[in-house]
Amino acid sequence: MKSQLLREKEERAKVGERANVAFVFPGQGSQYVGMGKELFDQFDAARRVFMESEEVLGLPLSRLCFSGPEAELKLTEFTQPAILTVSTAAVRVLETECEVKPMCVAGHSLGEYSALVSVGALAFRDAVRVVRERGRLMQDAVPPGEGSMAVVIGLTAQDVQLVCEEASQGDVVAPANFNGGGQIVIAGARQAVLRAMAVARERGARRVLELPVSAPFHCPLMRPASEGLKAVLAGVSVQPFSVGVVTNVEASINLDHTRVKSLLVEQAVCPVRWEESVKALEEMGCTRVLEIGPGKVLSGLIKRISSGVQVDNIESPQDLEKIVPH
After folding, report:
1. Is 109 annotated in the active site?
2. For the domain bounded by 2-141+221-322, which CATH number is listed?
3. d(CA 268, CA 133)
4. Is 277 one of the annotated active-site residues of the chain?
5. How many CB atoms lie within 10 A of CB 212?
6. For an engineered disulfide with 137, which of 69, 88, 199, 228 has Cβ 3.0 to 4.6 Å away?
7. Rounded to whole angstroms, how far apart are CA atoms 108 and 187?
8. pTM over 0.85
9. Which of the residues 109, 118, 226, 306 is marked catalytic?
10. CB-based burial, 226-236: b 16+ in 10 Å, e otherwise
11. Are 25 and 115 in contact (CB under 8 A)?
12. How far apart are CA 128 and CA 135, in angstroms?
């Protein structure tokens, strides 16, 4: 870890004052009908990304992003490549129009793929194909209605872990997202999740809410998806990269391209350690975060985790005005 940290500091020195900026990329749930349209209409760099995505997938992805229908956009196998495409289009526009470079990058769940594309570890055409398969695999891992996720607000990570252990009764239920600001998402077999929700309320959680998701992501029930993803990634090339990626699994900087595939495989079954990831960005010296892609979900989470970090989202041409050259 120390050697990685030293290498990252050297990279920061190379890009000077701009090196206090980190890029972060949103995951599933940030999609909305209309996302990416203004970028597509105004910038060649964005159009090229959408065209490449449609060429690889054979899907009318731009139509789906711009016009919906929303129900179709929410289907996991379409949502994941759609968000990746919009996020990549936004970062390409940002790079060409503002020439800003990050000190490091991170992404929430699916967003880690966008982060890897942004640093050149994954080719976009490979990543968009992989995430579509990832969406299919995650959807198929658990029969509809048998899995669930819920958000628990107001308990510590340790409390939620104990809640899950008490509620499991032989079934799977476990923390799936440590989002920060007292917000933790749990996932597993639906009956176990319902039991955990009841226990969490008894333990004094401020709010407990079952989430309208199609599968229980980031828990051991995703092991079949994880194994399938391993096979999909076997045919993908990962290139060396010099801008560190804070991974979901370890919440620390990775600069080793040979570890990327194994970390992505484990990501499917391990919790997203987002709060720790944001704190890792701070420890690296990050003072400004740009959320690149649809929505402001991560911006809200980051503001609750750290009051000392400036956060802006970049998803439209107007947002480029937020970038002041250093």
Report:
1. yes
2. 3.40.366.10
3. 13
4. no
5. 9
6. 228
7. 16
8. yes
9. 109
10. bebbeebbeee
11. yes
12. 11
Which CATH code for domain 147-213? 3.30.70.250
Tokens of 258: 């040979």
CA dihedral 228, 84, 30, 176 (to 10 degrees): 30
User: pLDDT tens-digit profile of 124-158?
Assistant: 999 999 999 999 999 999 998 999 999 999 999 99
Q: Hey, is 188 helix, strand or coil?
A: strand
What would the two tokens of residue 256 be?
Answer: 């080793």
Q: Where are the domains of the chain?
A: 2-141+221-322, 147-213
Residues 307, 300: contact at Cβ < 8 Å? no
Question: What are the pLDDT digits (tens) for 179-220?
Answer: 998 999 999 999 999 999 999 999 999 999 999 888 999 999
The active-site residue out of 53, 148, 218, 257 is 218
Q: Which tokens in the block code for residue 143? A: 């029969």
The set of residues, in sequence order, having a beta carbon less than 8 Å from that of 165 and lying 6+ positions away, is: none
> Rounded CA gap, 4 and 253, in Å?
7
